[in-house]
Amino acid sequence: MRRIQTGLAISSDEVEINAIRAQGSGGQNVNKVSNAVHLRFAIATSSLPEAIRERLLKMGDQRISKEGVVIIKAQKFRSLEKNRIEALSRLQDLIQSVAAVPKLRRPTRPTRGAVERRMESKARRAQVKAGRGKVDE
Fold first, then answer.
1. Is residue 80 part of a domain?
2. Is residue 65 part of a domain?
3. What pTM, to 2 d.p., does this model score?
4. Dihedral (C-alpha) 5, 8, 11, 16: value to the nearest 10 degrees?
């Protein structure tokens, strides 16, 4: 069971973790040891609340596939266990980012005084620019 925040957790059987070979530098070790981690988390079949699942699916993150599966590849460390912890923490951060309910924006209007000040400023600027033309004698 991985706790995301108070009252929100995902069980370990919902997360599929596979060990794969890492890319990049590492010498001969990289070719023979599978120490990178591929994490897969199906959003639709998870035990997350419906609102969080919807926000996750609507999120335009490249780690979420069209089928609604979160795919995270962790290969930062040379240790399999550290990469597993890294992948789980990235999944936790992703879920926490949508767990907070977004604040609704209330449209506002500028005050009458602000509009008048803007118009006066525009008129002053227009007069300055009009005075830059050619001078007729």
1. yes
2. yes
3. 0.67
4. -70
> Dihedrals φ, ψ of 134, to 5°?
-70, 145
Domain of residue 76, CATH code:
3.30.160.20
In a domain, 14, yes or no: yes
| More confidently predicted of 118 and 20 | 118
Q: pLDDT tens digit string along 71-108?
A: 999 988 888 899 999 999 999 888 888 888 888 999 99
**Separation CA 82–CA 37 (nearest Å):** 9
Nearest to 42 by CA among 13, 21, 74: 13
